[in-house]
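so i finally got all the pieces together for this one. its four components total, 292 residues if u count the protein bits. some of the lines might not be protein, just check the labels. i wanna see the whole assembly predicted at once instead of chain by chain like last time, that was a mess tbh
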Amino acid sequence: MAIELDAPAAEIWGLLRTLFGQHRRRFLGAASELDLHPAQAGALLQLDSPLPMRHLAALLGCDNSNVTGLVDRLEVRGLVTRQASDEDRRVKNIVLTDAGRRLREKLLDRVGRPASGLARLEALEQIQLRDLLRKVLEEASEPPAG
Amino acid sequence: MAIELDAPAAEIWGLLRTLFGQHRRRFLGAASELDLHPAQAGALLQLDSPLPMRHLAALLGCDNSNVTGLVDRLEVRGLVTRQASDEDRRVKNIVLTDAGRRLREKLLDRVGRPASGLARLEALEQIQLRDLLRKVLEEASEPPAG
DNA sequence: TATTGTTATACTCTATAACTATA
DNA sequence: TATAGTTATAGAGTATAACAATA
């Protein structure tokens, strides 16, 4: 049996990938139940506040041209509207409608809350886990996604 | 300011979602560089050993019929082959070719290894984190994904 | 009769390039 | 000249339903 110098890190990564998989299935399931394509659900989650098309495209990691069609379909369903910017008339801000906001809340109810497994940790353990993850992410400046 | 009874769990979930986002971007970037669609890259990662179509579909969370086309395209690129099962002639096992195995290794080099942030933890902290995650996932029987 | 994989269809996503209207 | 968003196009993903072969 070979000695695994890096065994804990490798197992941690495996455990995290399992968590990722659970989260992803939860996200896909929630989107499906709400009759949203994953990309549409991802866009809704990003729209905490109004965003220009190009900004939304950057957050979704795709080209501007993709966002045109995506927003078209959300707009047809009455979930978002395009608002011309006052400062720069080229820019259109995407704004959630009331219906869009309600749907976004439903999504958050399902994917924005902690995985059930966290409840198995006692209060002190949760604080330990929080501190360890903080340290892992210390330098990270990237925003949470999906 | 309202009292957050569940503050650590909520922050943990936020930190984990940040990690998910990093992992997802790394995954999408690696797939793109290797000229693979995300779904194709996900399939390759699942093919550690040969799998029947239906099993692959279940792991990818999509319908059998989708896997037909996906495997078609992987087969055209010489990354996988279909092997009829001996036990049940309805079943086709999807097997990586040598080229497929090499491409899968390249993928794993990029997404299968621990996030760099883990290196910020000392040995003892890694063991603590591992044990906490083990507990969180205690009952989970789901396999890791993508 | 039920299951495995395929085909057919329709809609969505995604990348690329060309276009417009602003700046 | 550069940028924000659109349009056009092509390839891929996805769900559904219908189908052939096998169990």
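Chain B has a mean pLDDT of 89.
Chain B touches chain A through 51 residues (CB under 8 Å).
anyway lmk what u think
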